[in-house]
Amino acid sequence: MSRVMIIGCGGVASVAIHKCCQNSDVFTEIMIASRTVSKCDALKEKLQGKTKTVITTAQVDADNVEELVKLINSYKPDAVLNLALPYQDLTIMDACVECKVPYIDTANYEAEDTNDPKWREVYEKRCKELGFSAYFDYSWQWAYMDKFKEAGITGILGTGFDPGVTSVFTAYALKHYFDEIHTIDILDCNGGDHGYPFATNFNPEINLREVSAPGSYWEDGHWVEIPAMSIKREYDFPEVGMKDMYLLHHEEIESLAKNIPGVKRIRFFMTFGQSYLTHMKCLENVGMLSTTPVNFQGQEIVPIQFLKELLPDPATLGPRTVGKTNIGCIYTGIKDGKEKTIYIYNVCDHQECYKEVESQAISYTTGVPAMIGTMMVVSGLWKRPGVYTVEEFDPDPYMDALNKWGLPWVVDENPKLVD
Ligand code: NDP
């Protein structure tokens, strides 16, 4: 029924590709295109013979629009799923516009070189105007709205778990449980243990840039920014137990603030263990999280990129990670004139994921929604020329697909609130 090009072949892509191959009635043909073609070939080798999906592979530099256009025009996909890094969002979007092919991703644009004076000028203006200083925001991709409309193509931004499922949960809560949502607390808990003193569960460079940035939340129509890790709460997560969690800036706060009418406060919390926080602080203090190149013995290196080489590859954590994740949202608001509170969440078991697709739950909880978002587009259920985040579409078919494809969810109508 459809032909999809998937760009990137890392931890998240590997899960999305496994799930496309399980869903071969929808994904009849896929192309895996990435920087290191040997990884694409190895995955094809593993899956071929176990699926009806026809898999081809290709080498591509997704920083290069011309190369992308050539590849897309030769394969002629019905959609492009971007599972490379946020650095490649804009080049892949440019290529999709030129080829008039729908675009889907899981993370919003982030500049690789944060010292680029042209990017810095826009960034500093945005920090002043909006009041948060994270390196990533939606403005770069929302600027493609007219180009996507003119090309007649749908662009879906952020269909991982968070952002992604958390925003679909919000659209579902608004459609079925509330007349008005007043507060949203997004809680991302990883109760898994991989046995290493320090490792990240997805791309270390992107992960550490996100976690070490100042936190921020949305309240009464504006952003409130706080020093990194300065708001801590404890929460007793269903099926995981009591965990410390910290308030972070997160990208879906920006789109939900725009798209959920009447919302008064949106916060995002993520759990971290003490070992992770101590290692991160130390690495930050010695300059290892810096994105500014340094000269070492005649060679230019970027400290955080060098650190990535030293840390365990997130894609290898699967066999050794035990425990569960619990990711979801607590909503308060009004229904039929009465106050109402609900908590929608999913629990995912690291070892169950490994048994199914040889991956840990963080890649699983991102890769499955990436497949589902792409399915919404190629099956025509979500079709609207322009660039949109997932809460702007009908959540019902997506919520059904989560139950069917490995991420079942629960609605608790009497949850404990976060202070
Ligand atoms: P990985 O580093 O494991 O994989 C990235 C892949 O992209 C690699 O295969 C890499 O190639 C490829 N790639 C990088 N640069 C290029 C390029 N210029 N041209 C072509 N291919 C390139 O990352 P993850 O799988 O952990 O993360 C993938 C995406 O998912 C990221 O954008 C991340 O932010 C997002 N994410 C979203 C989440 C959500 O819930 N919304 C949660 C977790 C992640 P190579 O193999 O050569 O390195």
Question: In a few lines, what is going on in this structure?
Answer:
By secondary structure, this protein is α/β, with parallel strands linked by helices. Helices cover 37% and strands 26% of the residues. Strand 13 and strand 14 form a beta hairpin.
Characterization of this structure:
This protein has 419 residues and is α/β, with parallel strands linked by helices. Helix content is 37%, strand content 26%. The protein has 15 helices and 18 strands. The protein has helices at 11-22, 37-47, 65-75, 89-99, 117-130, 139-142, 145-151, 165-176, 204-211, 251-259, 274-285, 303-310, 350-357, 361-378, 396-404; strands at residues 2-7, 27-34, 54-59, 79-82, 103-105, 154-157, 180-190, 215-219, 222-226, 232-237, 241-247, 265-271, 294-296, 299-301, 324-335, 338-349, 386-389, 409-412. The strands form 3 sheets. Strands 7, 8, 9, 10, 11, 12, 15, 16 and 18 form a 9-stranded mixed sheet that branches. Strand 10 and strand 11 form a beta hairpin. Helix 3 (65-75) packs across helix 4 and helix 14 (361-378) crosses helix 15 (396-404). The chain is globular and about 55 Å long. The model has no long low-confidence stretch (mean pLDDT 96). Bound molecules: NADPH dihydro-nicotinamide-adenine-dinucleotide phosphate (NDP). NADPH dihydro-nicotinamide-adenine-dinucleotide phosphate (NDP) binds next to helix 1.
